[in-house]
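---------- Forwarded message ----------

FYI, see the Signal recognition particle protein record below. Original note from H. follows.
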Amino acid sequence: MFENLQDKLDRAFKVLKGQGSITEINVAETMKEIRKALLDADVNYKTAKAFTDEVREKALGQNVLTAVSPGQLLTKLMNDELANLMGGTVQELNITANPTIILIAGLNGAGKTTFSGKLANFLATQKNKKPLLVAGDVYRPAAIDQLEVLGGQINVPVYTDRNSKDPIAIAKAGIAEAKKNGQNVVIIDTAGRLAIDEEMMNEIAEVKSSTNPHEILFVVDAMTGQDAVNTAKAFNDRLDFTGVVLTKLDGDTRGGAALSIKSVVNKPIKFIGTGEKMEALDVFYPDRMASRILGMGDVVSLVERAQMQFDEKEAAELQKKIRKNKFDFNDFLSQIQQIKKMGNMKDLMGMIPGVGKAIKDVEIDDNAFTPIESIIRSMTPHERENPDAINQSRRTRIANGSGTTITEVNKLIKQFEDMRKVMKQFSNPAAAAKMMKGMPKMPFGK
C-alpha cells in the first residue's frame, strides 16, 4: 500500500538530511520533490500544490529545536497535513435510525456487492446490529447469487425478488421486510453505472428519493487513481453522497485516490477495503493512514484487529494453560487461524513501525501457514494434546500424512517446544523479571 509514494517522499526528505536549519532554499527544494511525488502518485494537481504550499508556510514559520532535526520537523508537519488532507478525523456511519437505510452506489467492477457483504458483517459483529442485505442489482448476471452466497457466509439474511426488474420496488420492499422482521439496518446493493449514462443515473437518483437513505456510500476502486476522483465528483453532483469507500487499497502502490478525494468532493472516506475476506474492511482513520504513508506504521490498528479476533475469556483460559505448561497444538492451530483472520500478512507487518519499508520488496505468501496447518491436522487428537508423546515413528507418519518432510515436522516441533518454554517463562512475572535482568545492558547510555 502506497509503496511508490513512500519511496519518493523518503527521497524528498533526504534533501533536508544533515541540514542545521530550515531555510527558504532547502524547503523550496524539498517541497518541489514532494509535489512531484504527489503528482506521480496521481494526486490531483490543485490538491498537490495547495498541500505543499501549506506545508511550506508552516515549515518556514517554525523554530527548529536543538533536539529536533529539520527533517524530523518536516515529517511531523507532513504527517499532520496529510491527515488533514484526508479528512482530519474519523467519520463514523450514522446508524442511529431504526431501520437505518444505507444505499450503495458506484461504477461497474468497483466491488459494491463484496463491500455490501463486508459492511453487513462489520455491523453485525462490531456494532451489534441486525442487518438485511437487499439485492438491488437487476442487470448483472449472478449479482443476486453473489449477494446470497456472501449473506450465507456471514449469516446475514438477503432480500431478493428474482421476478422483478424494478430496483426501486425491490428497495422499498426490502425496507418493508426489514421493518416486519426487526432488522435495524438495510443495506441496498445497486447496479454499477457510468456517470455518463443518464438513464442509469436517473434510476439511482429515484432509488434515493424513494428510500430516503440515511447514508449513501460511493464505492470506488482505489487503483483507478485520478479517474476515481473524477467519477466521485460526477456521482456526488447527482447523489450528494455521505461518504466514500475505497476498495482494493491493498493493491494501490500510488495512493492518488486516498489523498485527493476528500479535497475534491469534500466528502469523507469512511471505509477502506484491504482484501477479499469478509473481515478485510477497516474504518478509515486519516491520522493512521498518514503515518503509514510516511512509513511510521500503524500499531493502533494492528492492536484493534488483534482484539477483534481474540476473545477475552478464551485469552484468560489460554493464559492458565501457558502457566501450567499445557499449551498444545490445538491452541497453536487456533492462534494461527485467528491471525489469518486479521488480514493480509504483508499488510499486517506494514503496520509495525519501520517494518513496512524493510519488507517492501519482499513477497510474503498468505499461504505460509498452510504446511504448518497440514502438519498439525495430520496429528491424532492425542498427539495434539500431548506434544511430548510425538516420537520418531509418529513424526514419520505425520510427515507422510501432511505431504511434508520429516525435516519440516522436526523443525515445527522444535520451534513449538522453544516457544512453549519462552511463553512459560514470561507467564511468571518473577521469572520474566529475572530473565530480563540477566540480559546484557543495551548501549543507550554513555
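H. also flagged this: The chain has three domains: 3-85, 100-296, 311-437.
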